[in-house]
Design a protein that fits this description.
5 strands; five-stranded mixed beta sheet; alpha+beta; 289 residues
Length: 289
């Protein structure tokens, strides 16, 4: 049963675009799935970065590496209960990698950023959608650039930000924060006022690598965004939660990296063709990666 649509977020928009049935499991059925060790590591690194910038903005002593390692440990240890024994063992294997990621970021990236806003909540509306779009901007620097952070096992495509719904939402959200009551609900900003965005990626490997992507959105990106979000909202309103392969070209990667593999009755098998339309399929043989 579909729940009433009261708001949208970058995560919910992205989830529905990836697979409407995934959205249904997460936001309607409220099914909780265990986090992976890699996800917990990424969140712990994010916690360290957030604390670093909050201290830097306050003018006090910023985190040194040893203290940052303690923050990382506390963040990881607080989430170990989410994992089974194998997952906890994997976290221990990744802990040293976490220290390397934090040390690299604090020494090579963070000193060059002057923070303005950190984890700031936003809400705004766009034409055609009658619910607010909400979220939190990770970081805005003193120059007004909206910055997000990722950890990844490989570099991001150079054109990633041109299609990413998350950072465009953050840019629109920060613009709404700046304008306040001067921006009418549903009114889009002048494109030349839209804040630039930046993605900082820590690439995991034998040696940590750093990737920086910078982007400025143009009118076409905002218009495409409005169309995309209207399509998502309309699909949710009409309770269209068909699995993605029923509405577009099947892509096994969507299923391979889905959090709901163990509970989804529509997961694509490892075969080339998708299962026939019309209902749940046999789960035998679908668990092989």
């Amino acid at each position: 049963m579909a729940r009433p649509l009261r708001q949208l977020s970058p995560s919910s928009i992205r989830t529905y675009e990836r697979c409407p049935y995934m959205y249904h499991l997460r936001y309607n059925e409220r099914i909780r799935v265990p986090s992976t060790a890699a996800q917990l590591l990424g969140r712990a690194v994010h916690t360290v970065i957030e604390m670093y910038y909050k201290q830097k903005r306050s003018g006090g002593d910023v985190l040194d590496c040893e203290t940052a390692f303690d923050v990382l440990d506390d963040a990881l240890d607080a989430t170990l209960h989410e994992l089974d024994e194998a997952g906890r063992a994997e976290v221990e294997d990744l802990r040293e990698l976490g220290y390397d990621l934090v040390e690299y970021y604090l020494e090579e990236v963070a000193p060059h950023i002057r923070p303005h806003l950190i984890e700031e909540r936003f809400a705004f509306r766009i034409p055609g959608v009658d619910v607010p779009i909400v979220g939190y901007v990770d970081l805005v620097d003193q120059e007004g650039t909206v910055i997000d952070h990722k950890t990844s096992s490989s570099p991001f495509p150079a054109e990633y930000l041109a299609h990413d719904v998350q950072l465009l939402t953050y840019s629109l959200g920060y613009n709404a924060l700046r304008l306040g009551a001067r921006q009418r609900p549903g009114q889009l900003p002048l494109i030349n006022l839209l804040p630039p965005v930046r993605l900082d990626v820590l690439v995991k490997g034998e040696e940590i690598a750093y990737q920086r992507l910078d982007f400025r959105y143009e009118q076409e990106h905002v218009e495409q965004y409005v169309d995309r979000v209207n399509t998502v909202a309309a699909g949710i309103r009409s309770a269209d939660f068909r699995p993605f392969w029923q509405v577009r070209e099947p892509n096994l990667d969507v299923c391979n990296y889905c959090d709901f593999n163990d509970v989804c009755t529509y997961r694509l098998p490892a075969a080339e063709d998708p299962p026939c339309e019309g209902g749940a399929q046999d789960q035998s043989g679908t668990d092989a990666e």
